[in-house]
Amino acid sequence: MAKLTHLDEKGEARMVDVTDKAVTEREARAEATIRMAPATLKMIIDGEHPKGDVLATARIAGIMAAKKTHDLIPLCHALNLTSVKVELTPGEDGASVYILTRCKLSGQTGVEMEALTAASVAALTLYDMCKAVDRGMEIDAVRLLEKKGGRSGHWVAGHS
After folding, report:
1. Binding positions for substrate
2. Does the keyword Lyase apply (predicted)?
């Protein structure tokens, strides 16, 4: 089992010291799904939502959240992301939106939290913008899909 790194020798929470870590290319991908009534998705796809293009707003919110992860998650490093991508795709089931995020940088620490934060905030933004017409929406399956780079190498969900 991996040792938790956010604890110091006294067992107190601390920010991990990455001073001696090598700068490497790092990338992480995460996903989330938001389930909704078919009529809500149709309204979004048809561009008939009274608040405008909710998918574009959620995309921008996800990007902004990735850039501000260190302000949201205690002990995260402030990172100079070189790329953040947030894709929102209407589900084939006619009642969901699938969110896929990717964050990249050249740095001393990974971008998993940034990718997860982007996916979460994009989903929350969709919820916020659509809650007046559909309070029963559910955010589901927020998870890391893949991480590349750094000392721990390449990891893919479902492949230990």
Report:
1. 75-77, 113-114
2. yes
